[in-house]
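Hi everyone, sorry if this is the wrong subforum. Our group has a chain we'd like a structural model of before ordering constructs, and none of us has done structure prediction before. Sequence below.
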Amino acid sequence: MALSQRLEFRQSQALVMTPQLMQAIKLLQLSSLDLAAYVEGELEKNPLLERASDDENSTPGTEPEVAAAERDEDQGGAPDWNNENLETSRASMEQGLGTELENVFPDDGGEKIAPVEMPPPAYSEWSGVGAGGGQDGDYNLESFVSEEITLADHLAKQMALAISDPAGRMIGQYLIDMVDEAGYLGGDLDAVADKLGAPRGDVEVVLAILQTLDPPGVCARNLTECLAIQLRERDRFDPAMRALVERLDLLAKRDLSALRRLCGVDDEDLADMIAEIRSLNPKPGLAFGSTMVQPIVPDVFVRAAPDGTWQVELNSDTLPKVLISQRYYAQVSKGAHSDKDKTYLADCLQTATWLVRALDQRAKTILKVSSEIVRQQDGFFTKGVQHLRPLNLKTVADAISMHESTVSRVTSNKYMATSRGIFELKYFFTSSIASADGGEAHSAEAVRDRIRRLIDSETAADVLSDDTIVDKLREVGIDIARRTVAKYREAMRIPSSVQRRREKQAAS
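Answer:
Right subforum, don't worry. Here is the predicted structure as tokens:
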């Protein structure tokens, strides 16, 4: 077959991911904290971006620069960056940006600032007031609060008094560094001995001393050892209690008959021993230097309107406020003579413009999706989780004319604050369970809530099995299998009917 060259024209369609589109998609799926970190990085890299001032700090009658740019675009084309009326003088720049050129440090060779008259060294703003504090309300209580003591510092201070041998202190400090925030010692003693070049016996001796420090139960290697240390501190670690502590698995299963046989005690003594175990602290280290949990900041607020509908609005605190500095761009563009400088400024301007537009589009998309979720789940907001409807991404995407992937990105790591609590947007998307009478399908979350309420209302004499729960759900029109009930029950960490019966009989 002969080979030849020829020209062909082909027409095809392909999705091209431009950098701007990739940036918009990336911003859409970021959480509020990740978005704030991303915008902070862009503010550091792009000199044309600046933070927007608050409304209360803005001068009445002035128009933000980004608003003027958008107005010019609406009136026809891109904004006129080379407008002759654009204020680029030194005085206007200093007034608009607040960066006076004379305000430099004396070491930089600039004009020195006149020294400020300082008060005498013996002067104090608290000298003329009593115990009530400063007159101007600048009293700072945090400056008088002592630094929080961590568990490692607390143990190190005690170890310095309990161990005098330098080698023992070195081993003790190494073991203290291995203690987690709950107070448990992680790692293997053989590995510690090899690492420090010390005999295992010396490591065990130092560990035994550390386990006598405050708080009781610290430096334990497991829960059994932690409880045993606290019981020894109370002088309650007798053979019967030892047998109980060594079989905590039976206590978790509420197998009281097996525990009575192992411990050799009657029902009354076993109840007292269990009460003693419950009074112990399984995580003694949490009393020192616990990490503060960051609360969830909602992205959307849902409030009841006077007309009976629901008002959906964005949380303005989670929306980064950035603007494009037209004045700075007009100034630096005049001094850009080389092609490299002009290309750099053009890239910065394009990146800043797309970032502002992408943030605006992200906010509008979140509000649009949230409004449709509230419309679809109106029964949940009005009557509770029992009226949560089955909902999937395709239903919301078709209603707002968007793609399912876009809705999926919007609902990731976004939270909605309602009168019933704070929920992730994905919480409202649940699978459907068929109705027994052929009616409307039920939401899986609503079925789980109904199972939980059935179990909470049971008595010790009438504990519901999974089969009984299935029958009760079918009476109200929910067609569900037994294995599904067991799966939902285990997901909610609810024990089986046998374990619940033992717990209720022991409690009674």
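For your construct planning: The radius of gyration is 34 Å. Strands lie at 49-51, 300-304, 310-314, 322-324, 415-418, 421-424, 432-433, 442-443.
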